[in-house]
Specification:
The complex is a heterodimer of chains A (214) and B (192). Chain A is mainly α. Chain A has one domain. Helix content of chain A is 67%, strand content 2%. Chain A contains eight helices and two strands. In chain A, strands 1-2 form a two-stranded antiparallel ribbon. In chain A, helix 3 packs across helix 4, helix 3 packs antiparallel against helix 7 (123-152) and helix 7 (123-152) packs across helix 8 (182-213). By secondary structure, chain B is mostly helical. Chain B has one domain. In chain B, 74% of the residues lie in helices and 0% in strands. Chain B contains nine helices and no strands. Chain B is globular. Chain A binds chain B through residues 21-22, 24-26, 28-29, 68-69, 72-73, 76-77, 79-80, 83-84, 99, 102-103, 105-108, 111, 178, 181-187, 189-191, 193-195, 197-198, 201, and chain B through 19-26, 29, 70-74, 77-78, 81, 110-113, 115-117, 120-121, 124, 163-166, 169-174, 176-178, 180-181, 184.
Amino acid sequence: MNLKKQLYEGLLTKNPVTVQLLGMCSTMAITTSLFNGLGMGAAVTIILTCSNILISALRKFIPNEIRIAAYVTIIAGFVTIVDLAIQAFLPELSTSLGVFIPLIVVNCIILGRAEAFASKNTVLASTLDGIFQGIGYTVALTIVCVIRELLGSGTFGGGLLNGGEGIRVIPQQYPAMLLVMPVGGFLVLGCVIAGSQWLMKHLEMKNKKKEAAK
Amino acid sequence: MEAILGILISALLSENFILVKFYGICPFMGVSKKIDTALGMGMAVTFVMALASAACYGINLILIALELEYMQTVVFILAIASIVQVVEMFLKKSVPALYKALGVYLPLITTNCAVLGVVLVNVQEGYSFLLSVVNGAAGGLGFTLAIVLFASVRERVNKADCPECFRGFPLALISAGLLALAFMGFSGMRIF
């Protein structure tokens, strides 16, 4: 069990969004303010961790033929719990994320991790995997959010800081509205993925140089 | 009649499921490398979406009667999974030609958020039975339109010369962005 390695994988080399390319829908649809990004990230992390724990605990009892249906039912149960909790305690988040909270059921990150990791590993490892993959998702989501919000509405921390208005960085008349529109989702995510690919390549080259120097 | 046309136009163009509302991005990215496969996927999705809209309209009535609305997500996703399974078995037995064309895509549809998305939207908007089915079918057609257009763009873009870190997926996303930009031209379009 290598904590640091799992965290590194979740954040960069096996990041669910930028490398595994899972859960694209929510990554583009709701990333218009920091509040949305953190809220969605937290919701997915909680659901992913819970479903990973339960699925890995039940992995010896679920028959192979109906495993996908069983996983989906477990995930849908947790999604409903989180959905109702958000509606009760954070109604603003519930209105701004809308139908994308129940749609976490079909978010491929959760089913993907259940199938690829939780169904084959111990409860402890699956818990950590859920947390780290969730953090990786949240970080990627937050980066996309910050870029889109900063350039698209000219603010930082919308929905959270400064009484929900966010801190204004770019004067009102200058931001490129386009980036908070659907188009911006595709463009910004494309650039973020390209950036992470560049970063990984860069780090790899650096490691190689280090080894060569030795 | 006007309501039906309105839903049809908005689901196809101004509120396109993929390019404006971001439902079903995974198959949009995954199955759009060739036009033929994109068309096959689009047809399968349209069929399932219309069927799921009809079935879930009935199921929702039962849930309301039993005061179990909070179970919607769980019940709908199970209903969609079973519909996909039944459609698969039915096609395999009775229309083998169609099954051969769509077979590979059918299991993928369960986790396509366009299907669950349209069902949830139908319920939230309180559409009647007819409008739900129209919304499902039109949403599916919008999905097909977007995925076929995107596949034809992608076949060419793949050969383009670009910075190395943009190769593959990032470039595909950016071309999808440009396609979404084109569809933005339809926003605000109202016939009625």
